[in-house]
Design a protein that fits this description.
The protein is an alpha+beta fold. The protein has four domains: 199 residues, no CATH class; 212 residues, no CATH class; 219 residues, no CATH class; 154 residues, Barwin-like endoglucanases (Beta Barrel). 56% of the residues lie in helices and 15% in strands. The chain contains 26 helices and 23 strands. β8 and β9 form a beta hairpin. Keywords: Cell membrane, Membrane, Transmembrane, Transmembrane helix.
Length: 859
C-alpha cells in the first residue's frame, strides 16, 4: 500500500505541473540564497587561505608589538611604533644563546600610490603598503618575492619596485614614474621610478605593495629607533616552539609567534570578517525562507482542501490516516528536494555573480575557483526539505482527520470559529510586544535595544495569530474605500477577500514581514540622515570641510599647512583622534589643532570654549558619567609611555560631532609620537569677502598631490554622509527584495489555486452574465485588497519598531530622533497595490477563460 500511495503522490504532482512549479519556486528562492551565501564565503575563505599560506613562510619566530596605538596611527599603517632597535641588537648579540641563525627586520607603513593617470590606485579595502625590499636569498623563505626579469632591485630614495598585480591594475611598468604619499606624520608627496616588478607568492587582486631599499624604507616608515617586526630563523636542532619560548622569556613585552601562528592569525581575522558577512547574507536568506514557509503552508492547505474528496476516496478504499498524512508529506519532500537541488545550482551561480560584481567594483578581494564543499550542499538540501515538510505538516494532518463520508459532502466549514482562541493569543502577544517596545524606547532597565528586539518578535508572532481576525474589518474598510468605485464587482472582490480569513492572512503575511523590515530600515536610515544633517548644520561653522577619501580616511598634518597658504583661507582647524588611558581605562576623544571655537559651535554650560594647550573641554554628558567637572585635572596616559595632565576649562552641551571631549594640542603631542600623528578632518574658515567656490578650487589644487584629499562644502559633506547611508539602504532593500519576490509569487500561487477552487462559482457568475473582463477585474481587485492589507500592516508595525529602535541609540549618538520616512511609506503602499494587480494578471486571465457549462457540470 505504501508503494501505491507514493505512486499516487507522484502522479498527482505530475498532473499539476504548474502548481508544482509555483510551489517549487518558493523553495528555490529561499534555498538559493542559503547556498549562494555559503558557497561564496567558502570560496573567499579558500582564496584567502591560499594567500596567507604564503605569509611568513620559513619564519620560525616573529616579534611584533603587542597592541596598536593612537587612532591617529590608523593613517600610519599599524598604528604602532614597532619593535625597538635595542631588541634587534640584543638578538644579534645573543644569536647562539637563543638558537637564532638569521635575523630579518622589516620596515613598513601605509601609503597611497598614483596610477598611470595620476589618480590613487583603488584597492577596494585591500592593504596598500610600503616596505623595505628583502631579496629571497637574504630572507627566510628561499621561494619568497622575486624581481621579474627585466627589472632590478631599488637603489636610492627615488626608486621602488611594485607588485605585479598592482602594476597591471595601475597601468604602470618598469621605467614608469609615479607619485606616492607615505601615510606618516611628516609626509610630503614625492615621485619615484618603478625599476622592477615583484612576483609575490599569493599576490591578490587589490593588494598593493611598493618596496624601497632598506635605508629609504627606514626613513619613510620608522622614527629611526624602531622596526615594524623582527623575523627569526631557528638554528639547527632548535624547533620553532622552542625558539618562541626563549624569545618570550627574554622579551615578555612583545608579541611572539611562530610562523604557523602568524599565518593562522591572518586567516582567523579574514574568516571572522567573512563569517559576519555570511551571517548577514544568511539572515536575509532566513527572511526569505520564513516568508516561503507561509507560502508553502498556504499552498498545501489549498491543495489539500481541493483534494479532500480525492483523499476521502482513498480512505474509503482502505488507506489509513497515517498513509494519507505520509502521502501529503511525501509530496512535500519531493517539492523540497527538487527546489533544493535547483536552489543549490542557482546558488552557485549567485556566488559566481557576487564574485564578479565585487571584482568589477575594485573590492580588492581575491579571485579563485568556486568551492562547493559538503556544508553548502547539506545545508541547502536540509533547509529546503525540512522547511517544506514542516510547512506541509499541518495541512497533511488536517486532511487525514476528515472522515470519508463527510469529505464527500458538498459543503465544508472554514473553521472560522477557532479564530477566537488564536486571536486571543495574538492580542496577548501584541500587548506584551508593545509594552517591551515602549520600555525599550524609554531606555528603562538594561539592554533597551534587546527589549525592542524581543518586542518586535512578539509583535510578529501576534500578527501570525491575529491577522485572520484583523483581515475582516481592515479589508472590509479598505474595500469600502477602494472597491466602491467598481460597484458590484468591488463588493464581490471585498467579499471574496474576507471569506477565508486564514488564507488571506497567510497570503498577506509574506508581504507584511517583508515590508515591515523595509519600514524598520527606512525609519533607521531617515533618522540617521536627519541627525547627520542637523549635526553638520548646528555644530560646524566652517564653510569648507576637508577629509581623506582613502582607506584610512585620515590626512597627514602637512595637508593643513598647504591649505593655510591658499588665498582666501583665514584659518584651518585640524581634528586628531586620541586613544589613551585614564585611571587604567581606555578612553577615546579628539584633539583640535587650532582654535576649534572659531570653526565649531560650542553651547557652553560652564567655563570657556577657548582650549589651552594643556586644557580639556568636555560634554555635559561626559562630565556626568566620568566626574570630569569644571576645574578638575584629568591625567591621560599614552600607549607609548608618557602622560599628560589636562585641566577641564569648559563644559559644553553634548553634540553629535563634538562628543565626548576635546584635548589640548600640547597634551596630545605628549601622548602621540610624531610618526603616528594624523588629522581626520580639517575645518577651513574663510576671510571676509572671499569667494567660497574659488577657495574650494584653490584648496583642491593645493592638495591634489596628496591623492586622497576630499574638499567639500558643509552641504556637500552632509550629502556625502547621507549618500553612504543611501548606499547601505539600497543594498538592504535589494536583499529584502528576495522576500518581497517570494511574497508576490505567493499571491500569484494563492490566487491561481483559488481560481481552481472557485471554478464552479466563477462558472455560475459567467452563466448569469458576468463578462470575462469583469471576472479579471474582480480578481485584480481581490489581489489589490490583500496586498494593501499586508503592506499596511507591515508599514504600521515596522515604523513602530523602527521608531522605538532609534530611541535606543540616544545613548551613543547625541541628538538622534526618530524620523518617519513618509515618502517611502507612500511609495510602498502604492507599489503594493500595483504589485497586487500584477500578481493577479495570470490568475485573472485564467479565471476569465472558465467555461460556464463545464464549470457547472464539474461535480
Amino acid at each position: 500500500m505504501a508503494n501505491t500511495m507514493r505512486k499516487v503522490s507522484l502522479r498527482n504532482l505530475a498532473a499539476h505541473k504548474l502548481r508544482l512549479a509555483l510551489t517549487v519556486l518558493s523553495v528555490v528562492l529561499g534555498t538559493s540564497f542559503v547556498a549562494g551565501s555559503l558557497i561564496f564565503t567558502s570560496t573567499m575563505s579558500n582564496s584567502f587561505n591560499g594567500i596567507f599560506d604564503q605569509v611568513a613562510v620559513g619564519v620560525d619566530t616573529q616579534i611584533s608589538p603587542k597592541s596598536g596605538g593612537n587612532e591617529g596611527g590608523g593613517f600610519g599603517g599599524s598604528g604602532t611604533l614597532g619593535v625597538p632597535n635595542s631588541v634587534v641588537r640584543t638578538i644579534e648579540q645573543d644569536k647562539a644563546q637563543l638558537g637564532v641563525v638569521k635575523v630579518v627586520t622589516a620596515y613598513s607603513g601605509g601609503m597611497t600610490i598614483a596610477d598611470a593617470k595620476g589618480k590613487a590606485i583603488q584597492t577596494g579595502g585591500a592593504p596598500s603598503v610600503g616596505a623595505n625590499w628583502v631579496p629571497a636569498e637574504q630572507g627566510l623563505d628561499p621561494n619568497g618575492a622575486k624581481i621579474v626579469p627585466g627589472g632590478r632591485a631599488p637603489n636610492g630614495p627615488n626608486e621602488a619596485v611594485l607588485n605585479e598585480s598592482a602594476a597591471k591594475k595601475a597601468g604602470l611598468a618598469v621605467g614608469s614614474r609615479t607619485k606616492v604619499v607615505v601615510n606618516s606624520g611628516t609626509a610630503k608627496p614625492f615621485e619615484v621610478t618603478v625599476v622592477g616588478l615583484m612576483d609575490i607568492p599569493g599576490d591578490a587582486s587589490g593588494y598593493t605593495e611598493m618596496d624601497f631599499d632598506t635605508a629609504t624604507a627606514r626613513t619613510l616608515f620608522s622614527d629611526g629607533s624602531h622596526v615594524a617586526n623582527v623575523q627569526l630563523g631557528a638554528a639547527q636542532g632548535v624547533s620553532a616552539d622552542q625558539l618562541k619560548q626563549r624569545i618570550e622569556q627574554r622579551f615578555p613585552a612583545y608579541k611572539v609567534q611562530t610562523g604557523d601562528e602568524v599565518r593562522q592569525e591572518n586567516k582567523d581575522a579574514v574568516n571572522s570578517f567573512l563569517q559576519i558577512f555570511n551571517y548577514i547574507l544568511l539572515a536575509f536568506a532566513a527572511i526569505g525562507l520564513i516568508v516561503g514557509t507561509f507560502i508553502i503552508y498556504n499552498t498545501f492547505s489549498m491543495i489539500v482542501a481541493q483534494r479532500v474528496r480525492e483523499l476521502a476516496l482513498l480512505r474509503a478504499i482502505g488507506a489509513a490516516r497515517k498513509q494519507i498524512t505520509r502521502s501529503v508529506l511525501f509530496e512535500a519532500f519531493v517539492v523540497g528536494l527538487i527546489g533544493s537541488v535547483i536552489g543549490l545550482v542557482i546558488g552557485a551561480g549567485l556566488a559566481i555573480g557576487l564574485q564578479q560584481l565585487l571584482a568589477s567594483t575594485g573590492s580588492g578581494l581575491p579571485s579563485g575557483g568556486l568551492v562547493v564543499g559538503p556544508t553548502p550542499i547539506i545545508a541547502c538540501l536540509a533547509v529546503g526539505i525540512i522547511v517544506t515538510m514542516v510547512s506541509a505538516w499541518a495541512p497533511a494532518r488536517r486532511a487525514s482527520k476528515v472522515a470519508p463520508v463527510e469529505a464527500m459532502r458538498e459543503s465544508q466549514t472554514d473553521g472560522s470559529a477557532s479564530l477566537k482562541v488564536r486571536t486571543l493569543i495574538g492580542a496577548v502577544l501584541a500587548v506584551l510586544g508593545v509594552a517591551l517596545l515602549v520600555i525599550g524606547a524609554q531606555g528603562k532597565g538594561g539592554g533597551p535595544a534587546g527589549q525592542v528586539g524581543l518586542g518586535a518578535v512578539l509583535l510578529i508572532l501576534a500578527v501570525v495569530f491575529a491577522a485572520p481576525a484583523l483581515s475582516r474589518p481592515v479589508i472590509g474598510l479598505l474595500g469600502l474605500v477602494l472597491a466602491r468605485p467598481f460597484g458590484k464587482l468591488g463588493q464581490l472582490a471585498r467579499t471574496n477577500s474576507i471569506r477565508n480569513p486564514r488564507r488571506t492572512a497567510a497570503t498577506a503575511f509574506a508581504l507584511t514581514l517583508g515590508l515591515m523590515l523595509v519600514a524598520v530600515i527606512g525609519t533607521l536610515g531617515s533618522s540617521f540622515k536627519a541627525t547627520i544633517d542637523k549635526a553638520v548644520s548646528n555644530d560646524v561653522k566652517a564653510p569648507i570641510i576637508v577629509t581623506g577619501s582613502g582607506g584610512s580616511g585620515a590626512l597627514p598634518p602637512t595637508v593643513s599647512d598647504d591649505i593655510a597658504k591658499v588665498d582666501g583661507v583665514s584659518s584651518v582647524v585640524s581634528i586628531r583622534g586620541v586613544n589613551a588611558k585614564v585611571d587604567g581605562k581606555d578612553v577615546t576623544g579628539n584633539s583640535p589643532r587650532g582654535d576649534l571655537s572659531s570653526a565649531a559651535n560650542f553651547h557652553l554650560v560652564s567655563g570657556t570654549d577657548k582650549l589651552p594647550a594643556d586644557g580639556l573641554l568636555v560634554s555635559d554628558k561626559t562630565a556626568r558619567e566620568k566626574g570630569w567637572t569644571l576645574g578638575k585635572t584629568v591625567t591621560f596616559e599614552g600607549k607609548f609611555g608618557g602622560s599628560a595632565p589636562a585641566k577641564v576649562v569648559g563644559v559644553y552641551k553634548s553634540a553629535a560631532l563634538l562628543d565626548p571631549w576635546q584635548l589640548g594640542s600640547g597634551a596630545y603631542e605628549k601622548l602621540t609620537p610624531p610618526r603616528l600623528r594624523a588629522d581626520f578632518v580639517d575645518l577651513v574658515q574663510l576671510k571676509d569677502g572671499a569667494d567660497s567656490s574659488a577657495v574650494q578650487t584653490g584648496i583642491e589644487d593645493a592638495t591634489a598631490d596628496f591623492l586622497t584629499v576630499k574638499v567639500q562644502t558643509r552641504a556637500e559633506f552632509a550629502n556625502s554622509q547621507a549618500a553612504t547611508i543611501n548606499q547601505m539602504l539600497t543594498v538592504l532593500y535589494g536583499m529584502l527584495g528576495l522576500a518581497l519576490l517570494i511574497a508576490i509569487l505567493g499571491i500569484i500561487n494563492t490566487l491561481a489555486l483559488s481560481v481552481v477552487e472557485r471554478k464552479r462559482e466563477i462558472g455560475m457568475l459567467r452563466a448569469v452574465g458576468m463578462l470575462r473582463k469583469q471576472v479579471r477585474r474582480t480578481i485584480y481587485l481581490e489581489s489589490m485588497l490583500i496586498s494593501i492589507f499586508g503592506a499596511l500592516l507591515g508599514m504600521v508595525i515596522g515604523v513602530a519598531i523602527g521608531w522605538c529602535l532609534v530611541r535606543t541609540f540616544r545613548e551613543w549618538l547625541t541628538g538622534i530622533q526618530p524620523e518617519i520616512p513618509w515618502g517611502t511609506i507612500a511609495f510602498t503602499l502604492v507599489a503594493a497595490a500595483v504589485c497586487g494587480v500584477l500578481a493577479a494578471l495570470w490568475p485573472g486571465i485564467r479565471a476569465a477563460r472558465t467555461k460556464p457549462l463545464e464549470a457547472i457540470a464539474d461535480l
